[in-house]
Amino acid sequence: MARDSTMEVEESSANTSALNQTGGGDENGEPQMTYEELVSLCAPIAKPMASRRLTKQIYKLLRKVQEGGIRKDCCFYGNKAVMKHLRHGVKKGFVVLAGDVSPIDLLSHIPVFAEEKDIPYVFVPSQDDLASAVGTNATMCVFVSYHENVAKYYNSCLEEITSMPMPVS
């Protein structure tokens, strides 16, 4: 059931993510999956799907949040924490969901709540890469709110997410 993802966020600057690589293998010698292959493994309801560029920007934002030590201030991960922030509307932000979650029913209610609260959301192709960007072992969704330390990255991601067409219900 576990699969190695090529888009894992590496701590070392010498290692590059699969978004930048075209082939080869990972450090274990296993073949890597391209962005297109990861997208093909996603659930059909995982729309809007982040582009390769937006996915890289989101992972970079999440890495900066983790490295800056502000994860508790502006990044909330896991179904329970994301739903809490959507229900209470404590802060404005956006939601990032993994598209390859199985069963997808674990996440299918979150986009509905996000649309009701006018909070933008986007799917990324890999649950493993999302979790490693946040610095956890496993997570399916992340709520990201504004923080002045990562304002440049946050604003660029938010602008691109809000410009994406939302799926027709």
Give a structural overview:
- There is one protein chain.
- By secondary structure, the chain is of the alpha+beta class.
- The chain has a single domain (40-163), classed as 60s Ribosomal Protein L30, Chain: A (2-Layer Sandwich), CATH 3.30.1330.30.
- The protein has 7 helices and 4 strands, in the order H-H-H-E-H-E-H-E-H-E-H.
- It has helices at residues 35-40, 52-67, 71-74, 79-88, 110-116, 127-134, 151-163, and strands spanning 75-77, 93-98, 121-124, 141-145.
- The chain has a 4-stranded mixed β-sheet with strand order 1-4-2-3, sandwiched between helices.
- Helix 2 (52-67) runs parallel beside helix 6 and helix 2 (52-67) runs antiparallel to helix 7 (151-163).
- The model is unreliable at 4-18 and 20-24 (pLDDT under 50).
Question: Which bin fits the share of residues in helices?
Answer: 25-40%
Q: Enter the CATH topology name.
A: 60s Ribosomal Protein L30, Chain: A
Largest sheet: 4 strands, mixed
CA-based gyration radius: 15 Å
Count up the helices. Answer: 7
Order of helices and strands: HHHEHEHEHEH
User: Which architecture would the CATH scheme give at its second level?
Assistant: 2-Layer Sandwich
Descriptors for this entry?
single chain, 169 residues, alpha+beta, 60s Ribosomal Protein L30, Chain: A, four-stranded mixed sheet, 7 helices, 4 strands, 11% strand, globular
